[in-house]
């Protein structure tokens, strides 16, 4: 049990037991009076709460791991077992004693799908619906001794459905009759979840208040005078649980944390209200005025400034009765269909934002959700320079913890309701178009979800469903409930010029939301063709240059564009038995294309191939035929990097002229899937993660793969002046046959401009395979704004020459400094390709990266540039780079990776592994990786003489020491670099 920051809240997340209902001989009344469970004694097992039945069974080793190999096929499906098999009792105890005029609520933030609650022999029914909160006032049924017995009987969804032999999108679609997640019947990216996520899947808590309780406050900000004058509006419901009139002092306080835990109180206001006994009232505070507040910006546009807004209520004769707090960001989101592109355009605080993000289902298919994992998930998205996440309609109404970290890291969120085309009117067989059976229940869940999430600045828009519109009555109710307050209506869509909102007019915080648009479906209103046609996708491998071509995608905003996502070999070995380590067979077809035939385990895990016979030749075979799993996965990472970098660069090449945004399908997998992911379910990144990170940086230099012109993308609101681009080509012998600098460049804000043609391929005797390095830098101090490294072949060629390049040993020097804070390790490293002294013409080889505003958490480096690369000067660079370290630090470490070849150190990848302190030996084949790890960059390459600064951070489990290893294309044996 955990105390929460809220007054009187205790989270009940430990000490739970569970048992199958058919194996329990006692009633709920008996379980909570005369016959409580005595511990982990059959049929009772340790329960996972929050969690699901399947998660509980897995935790107690009652089922095999459904995410490992083909083990999911061994677990009985609810369609075959019947609902009773997955109907479970959950039992716990909690202790509480109330004083006079105190009240206790028992809260379930979400249950799937319905439940009976027994407390000390008293029964209460929780109504159906996966996405609704349940609040029970249990004051009068608490045990006078303070020890309380709680039993919850949880029933699965009413219509769990059956899984067709060939799988299908959403199984037989029966789950759509309930207000529940659709993915649980399986999709083309996930196998069926056998219990359909039955369980107490979100937070359970007790909550003590005085006679008056604060219920669902709503915070809204309005801006005037170019965002200099701001008002905070706040409305809350107050519920008097007492037996007499409550004379209340209602306080609102706004604070801003400055530095080192010091907080500035911006506002403190007290209002008085009287509430009759047993009554509820809605109270709106007079608006609070702010002058030039710190604004909340999306990732890449500025800092995510957050104010702490707290509301307390004091009752005369009692004292403080309740309190509530919320981190709140001052920002305004506008959205309309752009006339130039017909794509939906978003503005934040008056500035257009070019959307680059991805689709999200949920963190884990067994709903093993935690703040820690959410933080990793969302930080990964910020690290990729993404600015939006779409919560797909077949998944979850995401939890407050998810939104908290989106607020922290600046990820805008597109939140859909629980409608999907395949389950709600389309699909094979054609599904029911009328949505769930109980439309009123859907709307209850929708309104409750809106109240739960509406105060988060990251929440950008509501959407009725995925590739489908909700039934008319639901759609109309959502439109009406989510109507915009006049202040938030956009002049480009209404055609009406709005004057400043009068403070005497209806307060926007009195709306259900009122601040964000509602779009009826993901293919409407400026998304895809805007009219509901299937015009998202495609979902398979593409030629990299295709993304840059004008005819690749017709519409302004693509909400789903998918591709490959093979993880590293270590993940395959960790999630599959040896039968799953077999690489695909490459079957040559009569038309000259190659078809990949994966092993049955890969097929079960929804592997998507690296070719599209008839459209795209196999992109892995461009590097030669893979010999084993390690070789296959390494070559797949090369393709992953190129594929996703090209996708995002191609979109940026047409910023505002053709496109307003793109969302990749998908960011990650909620299970051990083998497609569409930037990091796998074990939280190890693919190379596509770093290709995306490179391409989506706010200011970016790139090569247009269709025209071979070098372009600069400036998504910022500031003009770039006095910048230069260094262009260098490197061959496999380590020579630089082409070097050019374009100086005195100017790049307007919010523009992509074409600079110059990269002419090397047209020169005399170009090499069939070569490397291209682009650096955009400030001429004043050679500070690197953007660095981009390509490996390229001549038209019609391939990369097979790189196979022999594996044998070239390029020497490296790696210097590292470690900072340890508790269990968290932070490494700063300089990686130096020492195969050759740098070309004296180049001033940018040291890679002194310019930090972005608002990017302190994952910026590159602030090292000062120097103009030479060896001996004393190199030591001086190291001294300046590492000199700012403080705290508990290890000494400076230097590792030399030997080699006598001169050339590019190609496709280097660091990883972190754990070694138990008891033994330095690890079992053959055991996955020793420490995950997750946050890298400022990985899968990177260094030209001769180049130095790259890197940051690595991770947590080390107790009893384990960490070692950092290096692997690369021409360092293909894992090398232990440092023990930390």
Automatic annotation (TrEMBL):
Residues 212-331 form the Glycoside hydrolase family 2 immunoglobulin-like beta-sandwich domain. Signal peptide: none annotated. Residues 40-201 form the Beta-mannosidase-like galactose-binding domain. Residues 922-970 form the Exo-beta-D-glucosaminidase Ig-fold domain. One of its GO terms (molecular function) is hydrolase activity, hydrolyzing O-glycosyl compounds. The keyword Hydrolase applies. Residues 344-474 form the Glycoside hydrolase family 2 catalytic domain. Keywords: Glycosidase, Hydrolase. GO terms for biological process: carbohydrate metabolic process. SUPFAM superfamilies: (Trans)glycosidases, beta-Galactosidase/glucuronidase domain, Galactose-binding domain-like. InterPro entries: Beta-gal/glucu_dom_sf, Beta-mannosidase-like_N2, EBDG/EBM, Galactose-bd-like_sf, GH, Glyco_hydro_2_AS, Glyco_hydro_2_cat, Ig-like_fold. Coiled coil: none annotated. Belongs to the glycosyl hydrolase 2 family. PANTHER family: MANNOSYLGLYCOPROTEIN ENDO-BETA-MANNOSIDASE. This is Mannosylglycoprotein endo-beta-mannosidase.
């Amino acid at each position: 049990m955990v105390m929460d920051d809220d007054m009187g809240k205790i989270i009940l997340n430990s000490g739970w037991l569970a048992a199958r209902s058919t194996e329990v001989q006692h009633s709920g009344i008996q379980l909570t009076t005369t016959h409580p469970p005595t511990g982990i004694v059959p049929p009772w097992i340790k329960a996972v709460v929050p969690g699901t039945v399947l998660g509980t069974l897995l935790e107690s080793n009652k089922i095999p791991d459904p995410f490992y190999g083909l083990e999911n096929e061994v677990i009985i499906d609810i369609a075959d077992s019947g609902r009773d098999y997955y109907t479970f009792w959950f039992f716990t105890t909690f202790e509480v004693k109330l004083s006079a005029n105190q009240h206790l609520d028992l809260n379930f933030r979400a249950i799937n799908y319905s439940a009976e609650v027994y407390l000390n022999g008293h029964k209460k029914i929780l109504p159906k619906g996966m996405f609704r909160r349940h609040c029970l006032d249990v004051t009068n049924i608490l045990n006078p001794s303070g020890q309380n017995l709680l039993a919850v009987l949880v029933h699965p969804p009413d219509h769990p459905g059956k899984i067709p032999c060939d799988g299908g999108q959403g199984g037989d679609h029966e789950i759509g009759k309930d207000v529940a997640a659709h993915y649980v019947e399986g999709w083309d990216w996930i196998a069926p979840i056998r219990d359909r996520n039955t369980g107490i899947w979100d937070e359970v808590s007790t909550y003590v208040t005085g006679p008056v309780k604060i219920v669902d406050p709503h915070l809204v900000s309005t801006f005037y005078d170019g965002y200099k004058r701001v008002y905070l509006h706040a409305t809350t419901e107050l519920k008097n649980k007492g037996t007499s009139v409550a004379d209340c002092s209602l306080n609102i306080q706004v604070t801003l944390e400055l530095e080192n835990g010091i907080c500035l109180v911006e506002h403190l206001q007290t209002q008085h209200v009287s509430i009759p006994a047993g009554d509820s009232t809605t109270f709106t505070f007079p608006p609070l005025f702010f002058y030039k507040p710190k604004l909340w910006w999306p990732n890449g546009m500025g800092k995510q400034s957050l104010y702490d807004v707290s509301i307390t209520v004091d009752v005369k004769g009692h004292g403080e009765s309740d309190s509530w707090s919320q981190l709140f960001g001052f920002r305004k989101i506008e959205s309309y269909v752009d006339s130039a592109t017909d794509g939906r355009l978003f503005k934040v605080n008056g500035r257009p934002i070019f959307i680059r993000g991805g689709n999200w289902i949920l963190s884990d298919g067994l709903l093993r959700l935690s703040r820690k994992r959410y933080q990793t998930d969302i930080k990964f998205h910020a690290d990729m320079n993404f600015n939006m996440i779409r919560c797909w309609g077949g998944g979850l109404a995401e939890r407050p913890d998810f939104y908290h970290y989106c607020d922290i890291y600046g990820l805008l969120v597109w939140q859909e309701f629980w409608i999907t085309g395949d389950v709600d009117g389309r699909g094979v067989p054609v599904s029911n178009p009328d949505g769930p059976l109980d439309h009123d229940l859907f709307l209850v869940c929708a309104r409750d979800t809106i109240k739960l999430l509406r105060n988060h600045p990251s929440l950008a828009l509501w959407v009725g469903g995925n590739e489908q519109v909700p039934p008319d009555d639901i759609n109309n109710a959502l439109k009406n409930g989510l109507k915009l307050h006049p202040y938030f209506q956009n002049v480009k869509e209404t055609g009406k010029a709005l004057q400043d909102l009068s403070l005497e007019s209806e307060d926007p915080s009195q709306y259900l939301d009122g601040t964000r648009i509602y779009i009826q479906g993901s293919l409407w209103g400026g998304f895809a063709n805007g009219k509901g046609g299937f015009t998202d996708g495609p979902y398979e491998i593409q030629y990299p240059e295709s993304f840059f071509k004008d005819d690749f995608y017709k519409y302004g905003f693509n909400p789903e564009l998918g591709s490959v996502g093979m993880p590293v070999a270590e993940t395959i070995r960790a999630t599959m038995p040896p039968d799953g380590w077999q690489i695909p067979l490459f079957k040559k077809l009569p038309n000259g294309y190659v078809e990949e035939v994966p092993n049955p385990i890969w097929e079960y895990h929804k592997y998507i191939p690296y070719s599209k016979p008839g459209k795209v030749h196999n992109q892995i075979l461009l590097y030669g035929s893979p010999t084993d799993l390690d070789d296959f996965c390494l070559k797949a990472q090369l393709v992953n990097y190129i594929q996703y970098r090209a996708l995002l660069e191609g979109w940026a090449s047409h910023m505002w002229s053709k496109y307003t945004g793109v969302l990749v399908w998908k960011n990650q997998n909620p299970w051990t899937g083998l497609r569409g992911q930037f990091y796998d379910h074990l939280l190890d990144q693919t190379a596509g993660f770093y290709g995306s990170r490179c391409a989506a940086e706010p200011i970016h230099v790139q090569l247009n793969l269709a025209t071979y012109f070098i372009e600069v993308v400036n998504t910022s609101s500031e003009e770039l002046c006095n910048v230069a681009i260094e262009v260098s080509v490197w061959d496999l012998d380590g020579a630089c046959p082409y070097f050019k600098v374009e100086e005195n460049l100017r790049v307007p804000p919010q523009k992509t401009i074409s600079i110059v043609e990269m002419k090397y391929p047209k020169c005399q005797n170009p090499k069939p395979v070569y490397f291209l390095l682009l650096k955009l830098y400030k001429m004043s101090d050679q500070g690197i704004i953007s660095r981009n490294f390509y490996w390229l072949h001549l038209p019609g060629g391939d990369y097979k020459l790189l196979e022999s390049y594996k044998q070239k040993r390029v020497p490296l020097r790696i210097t590292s400094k470690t900072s340890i804070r508790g269990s968290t390790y932070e490494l700063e490293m300089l990686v130096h390709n020492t195969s050759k002294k740098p070309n004296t013409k180049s001033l940018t080889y040291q890679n002194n990266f310019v930090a972005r505003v608002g990017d302190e958490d994952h910026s590159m480096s602030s090292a000062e540039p120097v103009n030479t690369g060896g001996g004393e000067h190199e030591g001086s660079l190291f001294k300046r780079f590492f000199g700012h370290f403080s705290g508990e630090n290890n000494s400076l470490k230097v590792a030399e990776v030997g080699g006598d070849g001169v050339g590019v150190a190609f496709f280097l990848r660091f990883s972190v592994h754990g070694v138990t302190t008891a033994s330095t030996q690890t079992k053959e084949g055991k996955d020793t990786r420490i995950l997750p790890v946050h890298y400022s960059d990985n899968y990177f390459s260094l030209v001769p003489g180049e130095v790259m600064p890197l940051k690595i951070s991770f947590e080390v489990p107790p009893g384990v020491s960490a070692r950092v290893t290096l692997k690369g294309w021409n360092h293909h044996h894992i090398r232990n670099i440092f023990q930390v």
